[in-house]
Write a structure and sequence with these properties.
Layout lengths: L15 H10 L5 E8 L4 E5 L2 E7 L1 H6 L12 E8 L2 E7 L5 E5 L13 E6 L3 E7 L6 H13 L3 E7 L6 H15 L3 E4 L8 H7 L5 E5 L6 H10 L23 E4 L5 E4 L13 H6 L1 H7 L16 H8 L4 H19 L1 H24 L4
Parallel strand pairs: 3-5, 8-9, 8-11, 9-10, 11-13
Antiparallel strand pairs: 1-2, 1-4, 2-3, 4-5, 6-7, 12-13
The protein binds guanosine-5'-diphosphate, magnesium ion and zinc ion.
Length: about 375
């Protein structure tokens, strides 16, 4: 595929990490493929020989205790019964990284109305796509950065739609991001002028997996369309070309670029909830975490405790009020999503719904 060469398993993102887990499991002989799309009815998986429509086994379905036990886009899975474009997923190889969130929107049965939703797995870098127009929001970038770091994934920022603002305003936005996030990678792009898309393309290293995160409408799919077309991207007056906006993402899907980069697109995410772990938050607020080590009490919540170094820094202006408020809000959200009874009940209910759909599919699919 790559420049006419034969497709190798490394082109799909496979490496020694997955090879060693196969060795450990003693399953080197078992056929593996990568999950490239999740649809209502099942999965699409790909190996060097082709693509297959795949379902999970009944046995696996019965032993699954949470949605995280199910395959997600990015997973390496072990297959059986590969024939006629169909296959059966027997197991998932251990994940190197997992990007997940608390789902708060309406799910499709696989996701549920609430509960953990896996966005993508085995991702190397998450690009947080943010548009520079009126929706630009540093707090949102912060949330996405937290869920990426939480899953062991390095975040970077794509500032898209820069055709809509002046170079001066763009520099202001870049400075704001720098101030909030320090050394994070930033690429500025426009799918209208083409500016920056080549730079983005070149940053997508062969055999590595990238995930585009961001609200609906920021331009994730437009960017991926442009990246797919590019063997060296043209710049300039292509604002009216028919390709723009032609593919609308309705499901998670993985794309293989001509330079070997692997990109996962995501359907619009209305709101980003936090997962129940707080490590991602702590890492996104390094300076607060650093101050917290100087608080008098080890379990200081930095709200009203005496001897609190965070409150002292707030008082002296060393950290700003907005950032402090944001920290508290994210933390509360994480606590809220972490363990409410209502949530667990909803999760069970939605999991039940998922099982019903899945079992119906299973009946339709002969030979299981
Ligand atoms: N002005 C401008 N519009 C863009 C740009 N990129 C995407 N759009 C438009 O933004 C809208 C949403 O784009 P889409 O790629 O579907 O966003 P997604 O929901 O993040 O996948 C579409 O109407 C695009 O044409 C850009 O760089 N500049
Ligand atoms: Mg899209
Ligand atoms: Zn404190």
């Amino acid at each position: 595929m790559m420049n006419g060469k034969t497709l190798t398993i490394e082109d799909l993102g496979y490496d020694s990490f997955f090879e060693s887990s196969r060795e450990e499991r003693g399953s080197e002989g078992v056929r593996v493929a990568r999950v490239i799309a999740q649809t209502r009815g099942g999965y699409r998986v790909k190996d060097v020989d082709g693509e297959y429509v795949a379902k999970v086994t009944g046995k696996r379905m019965h032993s699954a205790s949470s949605r995280e036990d199910y395959p997600a886009v990015g997973d390496w899975v072990e297959l059986s019964d590969v024939s006629g474009g169909q296959a059966v997923i027997q197991d998932i190889l251990p994940r190197r990284t997992v990007i997940k969130r608390k789902s708060v929107g309406k799910g499709n049965g696989y996701e549920g109305k609430s509960g953990v939703q896996i966005i993508a797995t085995n991702v190397d870098t998450a690009f947080i796509v943010e548009a520079v127009d009126r929706d630009f929001n540093l707090n949102r970038i912060e949330r996405y950065a937290a869920i990426a770091r939480d899953g062991g994934v390095r975040p970077a920022v794509i500032l898209n739609k820069i055709d809509l603002i002046s170079p001066e305003d763009r520099d202001v936005k870049i400075a704001e991001i720098r101030e909030r996030f320090g050394e994070i990678g930033i690429v500025t792009t426009s799918t209208v002028s083409g500016e920056g898309v080549q730079t983005l393309f070149e940053s997508l290293e062969a055999g590595k997996t990238f995930c585009f995160l961001g609200s609906s409408g920021v331009g994730k799919s437009s960017l991926i369309n442009m990246l797919l077309e590019s063997n060296g991207i043209r710049t300039g007056e292509n604002g009216t070309r028919s390709g723009r906006g032609k593919h609308v993402t309705t499901s998670r899907e993985m794309y293989f670029l001509s330079n070997g980069g692997i990109v996962i697109d995501n359907p619009g995410v209305r709101e980003v909830g936090m997962t129940d772990t707080e490590t991602g938050i702590e890492e996104s607020f390094d300076e607060i975490a650093a101050l917290a080590t100087k608080c008098r009490f080890a379990d200081c919540m930095h709200e009203h405790e005496p001897g609190c170094a965070v409150l002292a820094a707030l008082g002296s202006g060393e950290i700003d009020r907005e950032r402090y408020d944001n920290y508290l809000r994210l933390r509360k959200e994480a606590e809220f999503y972490g363990s409410s009874a209502v949530e667990r009940r909803d999760k069970d209910r939605n999991f039940g719904k998922f099982m019903k759909i899945a079992k119906k599919d299973l009946k339709k699919y002969k030979g299981l």
